[in-house]
Amino acid sequence: MRVATLARHHRRIGLDSNVLIYALEGSGPEAKAAGALLDAMAAGMCSGVLSTLGLVEILVGPARQEGDALVQRYADELVSLEGLDVAGIDRDTSVAAAHLRAAGMSLADAIHLATAETAGAGTFVTNDRRIRGTPRVTVTYLSDLAAGA
To answer: In this structure, are residues 54 and 16 in contact, taking their beta carbons and an 8 Å threshold?
Structure first.
């Protein structure tokens, strides 16, 4: 599948932290696909949502490498990306995540998918093949987007 096709079919797209890590630090086809997805969001073709948990996950690498200055820069850049919302874990998201967790999903994955679901996303883009969709949110794998580019 191509990014433009994904954006046409899903006006709201949930993002896993690994998608943004590819866009910020990666190279190769997955990084290119992640960049194209962020470009589509910035152009208004669709909008994206990232859980605050995803923001934490992205900031761990910079925190290990450079300390607070790089962490602050990444945080500022991520929350200011055009077309991307960073969504907190509110009551509705907590309830949805609890149901996913009770069904056997890891806590982190449950929070990511519940955030996408409560924010109205139709799909969740990740490069983690262990993550499966829910009745309301399909999963799109970044490597599949990279192959279709």
So the answer is: yes
Parse the chain into domains and list their residue ranges.
3-144
Burial class (CB in 10 A: 0-12, 13-18, 19+), 46: buried
Exposed, middle or buried: residue 95 (CB in 10 Å: 0-12, 13-18, 19+)?
exposed
Give the pTM: 0.93
- Distance from C-alpha of 114 to C-alpha of 112, rounded to nearest angstrom: 6
- Assign domain 3-144 to its CATH architecture: 3-Layer(aba) Sandwich (3.40)
Q: How many angstroms separate the CA atoms of 18 and 57, rounded?
A: 9
Q: Which of helix, strand or coil describes residue 134?
A: coil
pLDDT of residue 26: 76
Q: Count CA atoms within 13 Å of residue 31 on its CB side.
A: 8
Positive or negative: CA dihedral 83, 113, 141, 137: negative
pLDDT in tens, 10-29: 999 999 999 999 998 878 99
